[in-house]
Amino acid sequence: MLDNGIIGIGFGAYLGVIVHAKICPGLMLRLPTSDERWFSMPLLRCLLALCVCLPFLSLYLLSPDQISNVYYLALLKTFVPTFASGLIVFGLLDSLSEKLGLLKFKDNE
Question: What global pTM score does this model have?
C-alpha cells in the first residue's frame, strides 16, 4: 500500500512540465553555452536539486507507529515526497538554476 504512492513522481513531473512551460515559455528552445565544464555545472545543478528536494524527501522517514492510518501514511510518506520532487525537478529547477547562475544561455550573456 505504501509503495503505491511512488506514482506521484509521474503526476509531479507532468505538472512540473506544465508549470515550466507557463513560467518560462521558450526556455527549452534557447541554446546553452558551450563553455561550461562537463562536470562542474551539471554536478552543482544536481546538488541544488537534492538540496531543494531534501525537505520533502525527509517525509519518507515516517513510520507506521507515528501515523496509524495507512491511507494518511501512504499519502505523506510516498505520494507527497515523490510528487514534490517531480514538480521541483521538472518544473522549477531550470529557472532556479538560471537565477543562481548555474545555467547560462547564449542569448543572455
Answer: 0.81
Tell me the C-alpha to C-alpha distance, in Å, between residue 1 and each of 9, 62, 92.
16, 14, 29
Whole-angstrom Cα distance, residue 105 to residue 74?
41
Length, in residues, of the chain: 109
Can you name the residues that pair with 105 across neighbouring β-strands? Answer: 32
Cα 91 from Cα 71, distance rounded (Å): 27
C-alpha cell at 1: 500500500
- pLDDT tens digits, residue range 68-105? 888 888 888 889 999 999 999 999 998 898 888 888 77
Four-CA torsion 24, 26, 10, 46, nearest 10 degrees = -70
Which stretches of 1-109 are DSSP H helices? 8-23, 40-57, 70-74, 80-87, 93-100
